[in-house]
């Protein structure tokens, strides 16, 4: 934030505005980040890939999707269909996000084609162009929460609270994603997308946008032809009625934490959660650990956490505690946009670098 004539002026979070050049000039773009020290042998073991955990979890996921979809359709017209669609919605509209994420990193499976297949299926479910978001997420990891560089900043200060609440119901995200896919399907690449997607990949962006839009159009046509909402409850609709768990966990990743720092302990959050949510979320609640070492597979993140927790802030003990912290920060940022939570480190941790953090934070 900056003050002009006594008024607070919001920062430009776009990738084509002045903040991009400012971040580059400040040495924040493609910079060297802090990492906890891990012996080479242990790091190599953590990064070892295997098909077994992801194959098991994916078969369970697909099996539950089939069972709940069949149950919802079979009991359609009675209240017994509701629990089936509730579960189906979360498995489709929320679990897709973590599958998209991990397979996009190429770490979930050892076999690359398996990563690619699940990645494309999950990208469709979450309404993301698989090519656009592969490059977007690569930039997110290179320049995490660096304003003007990171295309995936969810909290633009001061945060529009009403808009944030609507996200739990898929609004307005679904319209933004569909609008982006429709634009790309007509051959248009935005200025922000051009900043992080290589030009030779633009035809691929257009191709996948057309594939996704064609499937959605087919679902709508079947719904109209059968005069039934069921096709839309099964395809596309869960991104609205089943996304609440994805949003619930996603907002905790970086919400209320620092911008423009080069230490993931300051801009990412680890939260202890229940086993069901951990399955849906594929262990992404170990988010500091993931950002420090993004090539460690999801199933090894609990082990990674145990190895480096002496060097990290205390994790939030629950989703409830994490939201209490997040809501406190969002309320402060309504009147103090530069405020950010600054978590204490244990005595065993390497300290935050004051030269990289103090100027960027007004938190506590």
From TrEMBL:
The chain crosses the membrane at residues 58-82, 213-236. GO terms for cellular component: membrane. CDD domains: Rhizopine-oxygenase-like (cd03511). One of its GO terms (molecular function) is sphingolipid delta-4 desaturase activity. Keywords: Membrane, Transmembrane, Transmembrane helix. Residues 78-321 form the Fatty acid desaturase domain. GO terms for biological process: ceramide biosynthetic process. It holds the Pfam family FA_desaturase. This is Fatty acid desaturase. It comes from Flavimaricola marinus.
């Amino acid at each position: 934030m900056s003050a002009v004539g006594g008024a607070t002026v919001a920062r430009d979070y776009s990738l084509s505005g002045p903040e991009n050049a400012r971040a580059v000039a400040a040495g924040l773009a493609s910079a060297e980040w802090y990492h906890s020290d891990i012996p080479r042998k242990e790091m190599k073991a953590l990064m070892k890939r295997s098909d077994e955990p992801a194959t098991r979890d994916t078969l369970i996921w697909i099996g539950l999707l089939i069972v709940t979809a069949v149950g919802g359709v079979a009991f359609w017209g009675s209240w017994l269909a509701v629990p089936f669609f509730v579960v189906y919605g979360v498995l489709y509209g929320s679990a897709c996000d973590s599958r998209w994420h991990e397979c996009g990193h190429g770490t979930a499976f050892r076999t690359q084609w398996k990563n690619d297949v699940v990645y494309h299926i999950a990208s469709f479910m979450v309404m993301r162009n698989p090519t656009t978001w592969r490059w977007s997420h690569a930039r997110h990891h290179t320049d995490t929460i660096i304003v003007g560089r990171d295309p995936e900043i969810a909290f633009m200060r001061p945060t529009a609270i009403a808009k944030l609440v609507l996200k739990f119901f898929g609004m307005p995200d679904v319209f933004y994603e569909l609008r982006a896919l429709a634009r790309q399907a007509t051959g248009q690449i935005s200025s922000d997308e051009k900043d992080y997607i290589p030009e030779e990949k633009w035809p691929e962006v257009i191709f996948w946008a057309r594939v996704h839009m064609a499937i959605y159009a087919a679902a709508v046509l079947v719904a109209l032809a059968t005069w039934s909402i069921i096709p839309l409850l099964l395809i596309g609709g869960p991104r609205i009625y089943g996304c609440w768990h994805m949003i619930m966990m996603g907002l905790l990743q970086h919400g209320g934490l620092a911008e423009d720092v080069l230490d993931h302990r300051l801009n990412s959050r680890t939260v202890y959660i229940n086993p069901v949510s951990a399955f849906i979320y594929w262990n992404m609640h170990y988010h500091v650990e993931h950002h420090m070492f993004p090539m460690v597979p999801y199933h090894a993140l609990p082990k990674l956490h145990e190895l480096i927790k002496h060097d990290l802030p205390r994790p939030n003990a629950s989703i409830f505690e994490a939201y209490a912290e997040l809501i406190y920060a969002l309320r402060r940022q309504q009147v103090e946009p530069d405020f950010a939570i600054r978590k204490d480190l244990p005595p065993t941790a390497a300290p935050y670098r004051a030269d990289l953090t103090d100027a960027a934070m007004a938190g506590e």
